[in-house]
Design brief:
The protein is mainly α. It is 54% helix and 8% strand. The protein is built from 13 helices and three strands. Strands 1-2-3 form a three-stranded mixed sheet, with no helix packed on it. β2 and β3 form a beta hairpin. α2 packs antiparallel against α3 and α5 crosses α6. The longest helix has 33 residues. The radius of gyration is 26 Å and the shape is elongated.
């Protein structure tokens, strides 16, 4: 999934999502044929509520077939249900794509599981916009895929997705992260960093040496000012010096700087 005007909803990519959203075109026939689209997605996603919606939207069509023509009442009902159907279709598109992906992987999701996945997608999108990644960065490199059959089976936990996304401030307070010695996973746990920037920091350490200041870190990772302010209290920097010994190895020593 690529970050752009709109990120992908599923792990299948935009092309798959567009092809499986063509049913929405039926809604632009107003309420005369829009019921076909809702019957279609209800059957494919094994979701009875959308089949029921299709029955409601089919009322104008049924009335025309029974009476042999359209009167003012049927015409008005067609327009009203048609407008509602278009709005309804776009509102449930995300849920349908998530359910369809799960069906293709052999799992039928409950309503609570779908809500958790949608919440995770929204949080991921907000985090990416907050960090300000360029459009060429892959969302899959920054966050977990929006859906995994194996992981969905384990989503029944007491902690909500919103709570699990928030950094544990007490942990940060008790243990600062030294950016010159921290592992990739430790760096990625900092708010606003993620795995992409963590890898970039590790590559900088391996190729160009250690970070000498927090400003050097911010410049290397192109951090926005508000992100930098968030991580300053959570990190320390060991300023390292290299001394050559007789055996041509480097002896590292330094001091800890707390921010």
């Amino acid at each position: 999934m690529k970050v752009g005007m709109k990120m992908s909803i599923t792990s299948r990519g935009k092309k798959w999502e567009i092809l499986n959203s063509l049913w929405i075109l039926f809604t632009f026939t107003l309420a005369f044929f829009n019921w076909i689209g809702f019957f279609h997605i209800g059957r494919k996603a094994k979701c009875k509520k959308w089949i029921f919606s299709g029955l409601i939207y089919s009322i104008p069509f049924i009335l025309v077939m029974v009476t042999g023509g359209a009167n003012d009442f049927v015409a008005g009902l067609t327009i009203i249900l048609g407008i509602i159907g278009i709005i309804h279709a776009f509102m449930i598109r995300t849920e349908y794509l998530i359910r369809l992906e799960a069906i293709e992987k052999g799992k039928v999701l409950s309503d609570s599981e779908v809500k958790k996945i949608i919440t995770t997608i929204k949080l991921s999108k907000m985090n990416l916009e907050d960090i300000g990644y360029p459009q060429s960065v892959s969302v899959n490199d920054v966050v977990e895929p929006s859906f995994s059959v194996e992981k969905t089976a384990k989503t029944e936990v007491k902690e909500s997705p919103i709570e699990s996304e928030k950094p544990n401030k007490e942990d940060y307070k008790n243990k600062s992260i030294d950016i010159n010695t921290a592992s990739e996973s430790e760096l990625a746990s900092l708010p606003g960093i993620g795995s992409i920037l963590a890898k970039k920091a590790i590559n900088h350490r391996e190729t160009k040496g250690y970070f000498n200041s927090v400003d050097e870190l911010a410049e290397t990772l192109s951090l926005k000012p508000h992100v930098l302010e968030r991580i300053k209290p959570l990190i320390t920097i060991t300023v390292l010096k290299h001394e050559h010994r007789d055996d041509n190895t480097s002896n590292k020593s330094g001091r800890i700087i707390d921010f």
